[in-house]
Amino acid sequence: MLNNLEKNRLPLIFDMMASRMKKFQSFTGLLLIIIMAIILSPRQHGTGRVLFLTPENISDIFRQVSENGIIAIGMTFIILTSGIDLSVGSVLALAATFCAKLLTQWDPSIGQPVHIFLAIFLPLVVTTSFGTLYGLVISKLKVQPFIVTLAGMIGLRGFARFLTNNANLDIGFGDDVSSVFADLVSPKPVVISTFIVIAVIMSVLLSRTVYGLRVKSIGDNLIGARYAGLPVTKVLLITYALSGFLTGIAGILHAAQNHQGSPNDGISYELDAIAAVVIGGTKMTGGKGSIIGTIIGVFIMGILTNTFRLKGVDINVEMMAKAVIIVIAVWLQMPRQHKSKG
Amino acid sequence: MRDVSFSIERGEVCALIGENGAGKSTVGKIIAGIYRPDHGQLVFEDESLFSYTPLEAQSRGISLILQELDLFPSLSIAMNIVINNIHFKYLEKGLIRPRIINREVKPWLEKVGINLDPSIPVEALSMAQVQLVAIARVLSMNTRLIIMDEPTSSLTDDAVANLFDLIAELKHDGVTIIFVSHKMNEIFRIADSIVVMRDGCFIGKMLARDTDHDEVIEMMVGRLLSGKERQQSWKTNDFILSVDNLSTLRIKDVSFNLYAGEVLGVAGLVGAGRSELGEALFGMDKKIHGHVTLDGTLVDVRSPGGAIRHGFGLIPEDRKIQGLMMQLSVKENMILSRLDQLNKYGFLVNWKIQESVNELVESIKIKTSSIDAIVDTLSGGNQQKVLVSRWLMVDPNVLFLDDPTRGVDVGAKEDIYEIITSLASKGKGIIFVSSELPELLRCSDRILVMSEGNVVKILNTEETTQKEIMFYATRVLQ
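^ Those are the sequences you sent over. The predicted structure of the assembly is below.
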């Protein structure tokens, strides 16, 4: 009797554990990566501390993932609608170069603070407008997001190069307006807190608002969303505009941190962002995913890079390792084939 | 489907007729080898067949032309004809030569009366032409038995006449044809014999010249009411919705009135325009002309969102494709159309949502482990209830239910009837589409019968019979 009971119970306990594991699967992955990083990390000269765990290194990781993190958050919303944005790398380059151009080649007779404000504000207006334009073409003309943003990826890269005549616009180190801008925007605390604030706001936006629920509904079942009377066009417009806006912010941080606006930066950033989103458990077909998952995905990629850098591993080996991690992470999160119908 | 037996002679045109879901298409698919029978046998040209693949069926001369034609849109006419029958004679040095194929398919195209360049892709053709290409394809495979599943459902009158001429010619050549349909007029125009099916059973076979419309209809519907009393009527004499000459691309000049507290049943066979009527009212289809008056005000609905604001709701026919978000929770699915009331500055108001969702889940008896359970894990009947409750939340004055009991179990069906009646008792106007006549007779006050996008007749439930409804539903208006 008891034996029987035990037998019935065991799978139940196993199921419970499995579902717990499932809920925090990407989190488990992050823990594993951190443990691996600690084990592999070299020691600091003199003190013998684990280099990976030093405050400088940890804040470095945060800084390094910030740009990809901000882009990936916008990408999460887009992928949740079952879309994609391939143009983020080009949009980042456009924002960075436009910002640098405004700072270095524009001399308005206004005060320095206003000049800096406009150098941040105007690029954001431009990138948000391009996002809105994608949303318009996708929802009204019904062209696939892949195609629309592929066109954007090509066209905006060209536009960024055209703006600067293929040149990198250096943002100086003196005390001119561009240096003030760089000093203002590039410090670690500014970059990291921008990332954290955006992550918190967007996470709330996705999980607690009408808009967030509509995004998931549209991605889950577009036809159903139309029958339910949801404002599909409006939601898609906002989502692509949001991605443009966030990528614009990443572009401005990029320009400040690198002290230049380069029209050739940001190549393959879209792939890093998409990788982070899928590692974080968001489904490419839409409808299911979370911001916290994406942030975990961003950190898994970031810590991996950091560990390899500390070890001095070749960047090409790093890419190969990332490829394996992406496939394993996504495979682990696929729904298993047992459903209870009742 | 159970114990179906009949026989057909060579060169006979046999019509297979029955209501929606009577098992007509299933019989066709079994004969063509797409489905396997559990038991029983098929004798074709003195040869007994039991289990075979569609390919084997084709090689013996049995072909099926599906309702939704299975051609390859971007391939040419000629390639579509030879595609599953590529022969060495079409090749030149191992490569496919369109020139040779185009020449080889000429006789078949002439046979079906297509005077087109065989290299035109099929997607550029009209429905009628595509149909003819499909026939040419089966003829090219040396077919002696053709099963056509509702071949006229998307054809114009001229095209139907052409098709019938072709059938007569094929019959003359000794080809046997099984013609699945539910259009009475057409059947009597071409069929030699008629096989009637109902609820998956064989009802009878007779010669077309020995019978008439009435007898066939009687055989089609000869089913008793499910034994339950008629639901109580709450009909009042106040108009809640008037539709006046409403036309879209798929419905023609539809006019009717709906009273507060009334359940208006909508009957009609597949393709009669029942769902399209709902979509027209719901602003999903572009209106060509006509007026809709809701609650005494003339409304111009251009989108589902607009329809909802005017107090009109629609529960779509296909729960999975048009209805639910399968990866979202019960709660999220239920509140989707009511979000404008459940938020404050765009933020979801959780206590309000919990309260209203819990109340509904309890009152309409949705069996779910929690309101946060993913909808996909629920049974079909409970999923349907979730979809219905999405609209109960919105609480529209007029609710259009498109076949809400399709594919749900008996218990859930009863619950859905209850919901309909209770809505009517609150003075709502209900439009209830169903393919099951007993259900319509049980729940509705009046029954609107549609055929080919037209309203053929509005019948009083008290005074009508299944037979009468079916008579109007199978009538093809000229």
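Chain A touches chain B at residues 208-211, 213-214, 216-217, 220-221, 223-231, 283, 287-288, 339-342 (CB under 8 Å). The longest helix of chain A spans residues 112-140.

Shout if you want it in another format.
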